[in-house]
Amino acid sequence: MRIARFNGGRIGVVRxxxxxxxxxxxxxxxxxxxxxxxxxxxxGMNRVIAGFAxxxxxxxxxxADAETHPVTEVRFDTPIPWPCALxxxxxxxxxxxxxxxxxxxxxxxxFFVLGASSLAGxxxxxxxxxxxxxxxxxxxELAVVIGRRCRGVSAADALDHVxxxxxxxxxxxxxxEERAFRKSHETFTPVGPWITTRDEVGDDLGSLxxxxxxxxxxxxxxxxxxxxxxxxxxxxxxxxxMTLEPGDIIATGTGAGVGPLHDxxxxxxxxxxxxxxxxxxxxxxxxxxxxxxxNG
Length: 296
Ligand code: MN
What we know:
This protein is α+β, with helices and mostly antiparallel strands.
């Protein structure tokens, strides 16, 4: 199942349009899962995920009569705007380690955590901060969405705690400041357009193909079997430190080919069996501060 947030916090299921014979449609199941789109904090999707065994039945019963919209006519919101933790893995592909001249690979560096307000949805925009002399890079990543609370889970049992997968860009100001500082700029973590559930993706994650282009020019092209620490090992590592909650997101690291984003460009990330996330890049006015100025 492909489950999304759209049009200001509504919950939808994305399926092929069997009637019109083309495209895909979003079935509005907001009522069936009892989510208030205007609620604060916006944790409706977290609850849907936590109770999915029950919610799935209600969703499937509601699909036949649900209002539908062509995917081209909705605005996809970021699927989980309020995760308890937005975890990211540094340097988890060896080809990216080479291009960054980085010895600090995932196996000996652990993870870092990003601000949830960096999350953005399909379409973007990704807003470049007003920082002079710095490159802002795209990083194409598979996002893992946790489905069941876990602490101290083994790699062998890890995938049983996964709800699904999504496309994620870990946009980054290059520099030597803390990663969380350079990667938590507002809109720097677009995710989506939807979450594809584990059963639909399957457990053969190594065959997933991650491709990112900028204005049609392919920049990154890698398969997930090139990860230094595969997804089950990442979940084991993270859950040994923290309790992972339903709706938590793990950005699993990027392959080689990271490079600068510029105003007015469009970046598109395709992950086989998962989805296709596209964002517009714009230039913003905020983001500069004494740290960037001091470091030059
Ligand atoms: Mn990254």
